[in-house]
């Protein structure tokens, strides 16, 4: 039903929330739009947090693998995967792409991992975490940039 995204930590951590059934077109649009943002990152690396708490279904595995793997992208940390098929698809992508990726249960776990893998990262404060909650609570299906 939709993908929303925005910089959680400016040009260092991208927050992406996926909702409902994400189809191939939405997924490809997200990949194309975020590639432009990633190309503009002035740092050596950036990370992606993927909120899957309301994700029911992803595109087919071959479509998941057919996105831009940016050279500056370091860690992808996905949290809140409830659906076993979604977890399976994510684990397959991990194995095939050899991506630095962790699957965890909560946002707090995600932020803790980011703090360990990137010691120079200024982790979000409560205001930023509230921003995440606001994104989650929005009912529109269109992409959202912050």
Please tell me how large the radius of gyration is: 14 Å
Q: Which whole number gives the mean pLDDT? A: 80
Total of DSSP H or I helical runs spanning 4+ residues? 5
Question: Structural class of the secondary elements?
Answer: alpha/beta
The number of distinct β-strands equals: 5
Quaternary organization = single chain
CATH H level, superfamily name? SpoIIaa-like domains
Order of helices and strands: EEHEHEHEHH
Strand ordering within the main sheet: 1-2-3-4-5
Gross CATH architecture: 3-Layer(aba) Sandwich
Low-confidence stretches: 139-146
CATH T-level topology? Rossmann fold
Major sheet attributes: 5 strands, mixed
CATH top level label: Alpha Beta
Span from first to last CA?
20 Å
Q: What is the domain total for the residues?
A: 1
Helix content: 25-40%
Principal-axes geometry comes out as: globular
Percent strand equals 25-35%
Describe the structure.
The chain is an alpha/beta fold and 146 residues long. It has one domain (2-137): Rossmann fold, CATH 3.40.50. Helices cover 40% and strands 28% of the residues. It is built from 5 helices and 5 strands, in the order ββαβαβαβαα. The protein has helices at 24-39, 61-65, 84-97, 107-117, 126-137, and strands spanning 2-9, 13-21, 46-57, 73-79, 100-104. It has a 5-stranded mixed beta sheet with strand order 1-2-3-4-5, with helices on both faces. Strand 3, helix 2 (61-65) and strand 4 (73-79) form a beta-alpha-beta unit. The protein is globular. It starts with a strand and ends in a 9-residue tail after the last helix.
């Amino acid at each position: 039903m939709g993908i929303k995204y925005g910089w959680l930590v400016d040009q260092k951590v991208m927050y992406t929330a996926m909702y409902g059934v994400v189809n191939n077109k939405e997924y490809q649009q997200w990949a194309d739009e975020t590639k432009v943002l990633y190309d503009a990152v002035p740092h050596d690396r950036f990370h992606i947090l993927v909120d899957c708490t309301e994700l029911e279904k992803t595109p087919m595995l071959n479509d998941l693998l057919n996105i831009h793997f940016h050279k500056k992208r370091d860690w992808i940390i996905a949290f809140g995967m409830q659906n076993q098929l979604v977890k399976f698809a994510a684990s397959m992508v991990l194995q095939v792409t050899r991506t630095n990726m962790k699957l965890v249960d909560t946002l707090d776990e995600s932020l803790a991992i980011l703090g360990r893998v990137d010691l120079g990262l200024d982790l979000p404060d409560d205001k930023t975490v509230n921003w995440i909650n606001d994104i989650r609570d929005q009912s529109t299906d269109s992409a959202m940039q912050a």
